[in-house]
Specification:
Blueprint: H1 7-17, E1 23-25, E2 38-39, H2 46-53, E3 60-61, H3 66-72, E4 76-80, H4 88-94, E5 102-106
Antiparallel strand pairs: 1-5, 2-3, 4-5
Length: 111
């Protein structure tokens, strides 16, 4: 989603095609220190995009409002702190991001 200009349209389409009762894992780069998603279409320089978004081909860096964006298209959310399933040694061994929140997005009703 961080690569797609119209992420709202993409999220809506994922919701539309997901079976009722289905789950989508919509993992994105997430800045947990930012309340709001950083988006700026005027940034076209690759170096500046890397600096702002983490990669030259990203069009945004999601903030904690990402979960509300998912809810707005209809998803029910469960926020998973995946690393809590592992000890420190395995977190390092498997390269797990320790505080990452992974959204499990469920479609419970037909819209």
């Amino acid at each position: 989603l961080e690569h797609i200009e119209d992420d709202h349209k993409a999220m809506s389409e994922i919701y539309r095609v997901l079976n009722i009762g289905g789950t989508a894992i919509l993992q994105v780069p997430l800045n947990q220190n930012s309340k709001n998603t950083l988006e700026d279409n005027s940034i076209t320089d690759k170096k500046e995009r890397i600096e702002k978004f983490g990669q030259y081909d990203h069009v945004r860096l999601y903030g904690m409002d990402y979960f509300e964006r998912l809810k707005k298209v209809g998803f029910e959310l469960e926020q998973i702190k995946y690393a809590s399933n592992y000890n420190k040694k395995d977190i390092k061994k498997f390269g797990i991001i320790e505080n990452e929140i992974i959204p499990l997005c469920k479609k419970l009703i037909k819209n």
